[in-house]
Amino acid sequence: MNGKSQTEGLDFIAAFNKLMAHGEDTITKIDEKVSGETLLLNPQRQQILQYLSKYPCNHINGIVRDLNLSYPTVKWHIDLLIKQEFVSSKTVGNKTVFYPYNMISEKDVDLFSFLNKNKARELYLLLIEKPGLTQKEICNFSKMSNRTVISYLYDLTNFGFIVVRKDGIYRRYYPSKLINELIESYRDRMNNFRKDIKRKLIKDGLNPVVVRAQDNLLQIQIGDQKKYSILKIFANPIITILDKPN
Question: What DSSP character marks residue 37?
């Protein structure tokens, strides 16, 4: 991290902790407790929120698979997180996807949902690594069928992730500038998202203290001396979702 980023991180921590000193005077806590505890002191709810901040706009079966939790457990905890406005949902195609409240612009939900597909992400990263491949070369490198490659190239083009350029009889595929534009735009959006998370944690009586603030990760201690944990909020979803293992 450079000197400017370190200074910004320290400034954010100082401002956050200053707000905490006076926050309870102006923000009412949630009186309703879930099973005798505040919402995010439950480790599974915390795990789900952290996961969705890292890989937003996944459907419930994907969350079940990646976190190795049962379907009823994930459904129960997501419903509670939605009720307290920590998580939002939207229908994409024939599935409902979930993401942290106010983290993702609604117009980008379909895009993030698409990037949660392993093969779509794999093809896109291949073109970042090897720009200018033809369709046949993409099939050879990816070991995917011609039909699968055609389908994902079509979607990647429609979302604006790639552009096609004619080279004689060949059509060559290149990554567009969209991903860089999204990374920059979500850096700005994440500032508001961080503030929103901060207010919700105060409202839930979790006494949050920022212990580390980086460009792409916010670590917050929540709870009290008897019971506390570190909540990790990933703060640039484009970067983390592209880095998602297949």
Answer: B
104-147 tens-digit pLDDT: 999 999 999 999 999 999 999 999 999 999 999 999 999 999 99
Domains by residue range for the chain, with CATH: 3-111+179-242 (1.10.10.10), 117-176 (1.10.10.10)
Report the distance separating Cα 39 and Cα 204, nearest Å. Answer: 7
168: left (phi over 0), alpha (psi -120 to 50) or beta: left
One-letter-per-residue 3-state SS of 218-236: EEEEEECCCCEEEEEEECC
At 236 the pLDDT is 85
Cα dihedral: 59, 60, 65, 71 (round 10): -170
What pTM, to 2 d.p., does this model score?
0.82
Q: Let me know: does 119 contact 144? Beta carbons within 8 Å.
A: yes
Taking Cα atoms as reference points, which of 242, 246, 237 lies closest to residue 105? 237
pLDDT tens digits for 94-107?
Answer: 999 999 999 999 99
Give the C-alpha separation, 100 to 55, whole Å. Answer: 10
Distance CA 125, CA 187 (A): 21
